[in-house]
Specification:
single chain; 7-stranded antiparallel β-sheet; about 30% helix; alpha+beta; about 15% strand; about 400 residues; 13 helices; 4-stranded mixed β-sheet; Beta-lactamase
Length: about 400
Amino acid sequence: MSRSVNIDTPTGRIEGFCDTRFAGVLQAFHDNFLQRDEVGASLALNVEGQVVCDLWGGRVSPAGEAWREDTVCTVFSSTKGLMSLCAHLLADRGKLDLDAPITRYWPEFGVAGKENARVSMTLDHTVGLPHVREPVAAGGFWDYDAMVKRIAAEPAFWTPGTRQGYHGITMAWTVGELIHRAAGQRLGKFFDAELAQALSAECWIGLPPSLESRVAPMIAALPDSDWLASTFIQDALTNTGSPANLFLRDFASFDVNTTACHAAEVGSANGIANGRGLASVYAPFANGGMHQGRRLIGQDAITRMSRVAAATPDDATLRVPVRFGLGFMKSMDNRRIPGVVNSSLLLSEAAFGHVGAGGSLGFADPECKLSFGYAMNRMGTGVLLNERGQSLVDAVYTALGYRSNAGGVWAV
């Protein structure tokens, strides 16, 4: 049974609906505004093909207008999950071989130590191009063709496949250009036609200018002493030229609250969505590849998407232990590791998806046929989920009858 939601809070009204089975999720969403400094946010859940929770609330800025049902915002690296869904669609259709050398599709890439790199390495963060060494000029990230040429020419940081390091921004072009060449059209258009429009999902990788008025600006996280003392930040600030240092440099120049950014195609970082949109896109992948009785993707592809493809005790960029599938984050438990802040993502072992900088999240869980989407405008610290997003995930798994996440994943 669904309950209509209309709750006033000191920071704005929460609206939408929520199945009574997920009352704890509604409470956690409410608590984020009351106790965890949420400003504006949206959350949606789909279970067994049915929307069971669709919530939005707060404000587009601390003193601004209300967050509406159709408000959207930048979801940063949650975009990587959307881009990776496209790669797997193409693989399932026989147009992109994930085990093939990249040069089969993109001959210009095979230089400067990258000659033997495989397609899969661009998805699991082992291809060896976590960043570009020289700074990108203002607005340069929005020039797709120029970035593709630059990535192709950039020497590898390590022999592809021998090390894992998060490709925070460059994944937009290592994976995006492979999709372009395999599909015969650019990522933004392919995603829009094959996923967003097909699934009626409010998600874009390249926002139409006519929708700009719906975008809530992002509010940067305020660094605290724990975050400044973290291994990642200390490496970024003191080790010039390290992957962490270059990631912080490039992220700081990524001017997200501009029309130019919203309209660009940066498949690693500039997707625009709300919670409903993220949950809608992942829904078929949580339900055996089916959408409204039509097969979108094969079950074998979903099995491949669900497995861990690469893991390391010390990611070269993020400086924490990580576990990745082919394009997706898997559950990662770093709660007991010293020197890290908000650097865990606790899902079930079957789940796959992606966190965005500041705390957004979209994922599919084929085990319980759940798809989840959360987007917000006030960013948090850390490299993975902060307590706002994780509290929502925890409430969902609790409502579904899962027992505990003490072992590092949510388990029944």
